[in-house]
Amino acid sequence: MFFLFTGVLSQDVADTISDVISDNVDVVTWDVLTQYLQDSLPTVLDFLVKLIIAIIVLLVGRRIIRFVRKCLRRFMDKSNLDTGLKQFFDKFVNVALHFVLVLAVLGRFGVTASSVIAIIGSAGLSIGLALQGTLSNFAGGVLILMLRPFKVGDYIKEDTSGNEGKVMEIQLFYTKLVTLDNKVVVVPNANLTSSSLTNLTNQDRRRVDIKVGISYHADIRVAKRVIEEVLEAEEKRITEEPYKIYVDELAESSVVIGTMVWVRTEDYYEVKWRLTENIKYALDENHIEIPFPQVTVTYEKNKDE
């Protein structure tokens, strides 16, 4: 009986002690949490205020950037600057102002411009290696605008890669070309300044060169007269410039006759295609053969056979 009573008493004491400890732990935990919140509240409020100000600065800054770019475009339109120069300056100002805006936003959180520049400077070698191609393209864009080997609207051909098309836009790092079949080709500016290119529309007139082979049995004088009639009938040729019809080559299977006629640059492809077709029709009508490659084989019979 004594041991039973002792056991029951001991259990009651243990439960009481456990309740007291639990209550004390709850009190201590709540007090610590309350104190932590009281200590952290100014910091949290300060961060929220900075965050709200940063958002306001970002929104207002973007509106200011749009306004500045709009004013800049109006100014450049009035100054009759080259279209490529306008596009380049617009992109450059956009990037520069957004960089300043980012610094202003970071400044709301205590990040200074000097610290950002210091970080960029300390990582300059790595950044320079990583952005080597990008910086080359940027330098290429500056050279294009300074030297002006072409402008927006010109039709150019990159001699190294063979990319060609009408210049649609000169950006900070790339130049956009539109091909004759309406494809957009993006060419790095460094490629356009480090290799040769051909500007096909820099001049107001171009020469159309067409070469056609006729049979060795045909009369060259008749063929030249037929081609001359086709050239005379072409309405879009420049009559002030004399055309030429000449024998260009005595090839293996044909006599190659060349023609030269001058046209306005914008009419080049139209005239070239039309003359090529009309010359073919005219030669056919006058029974002048345009031969395909031929090989003459001579067989000598052996006397012993």
Model description:
With 305 residues, the chain is an alpha+beta fold. 57% of the residues lie in helices and 17% in strands. A 5-stranded antiparallel sheet has the order 4-3-2-1-5. Strands 6-8-7 form a 3-stranded antiparallel sheet, covered by helices on one side. A hairpin with a 5-residue loop joins strand 3 and strand 4. Helix 7 packs across helix 8. It is elongated and about 120 Å long. The termini are far apart. The relative contact order is 0.07.
Strand % is 15-25%
State the helix count: 8
Average pLDDT rating: 79
**In this structure, how is the largest beta sheet organized?**
5 strands, antiparallel
What gap, in angstroms, lies between the N and C termini? Answer: 144 Å
Rg calculated over all Cα atoms: 41 Å
Q: What's the quick description here?
A:
With 305 residues, the protein is α+β, with helices and mostly antiparallel strands.
Characteristic key phrases:
305 residues; alpha+beta; five-stranded antiparallel beta sheet; 8 helices; 17% strand
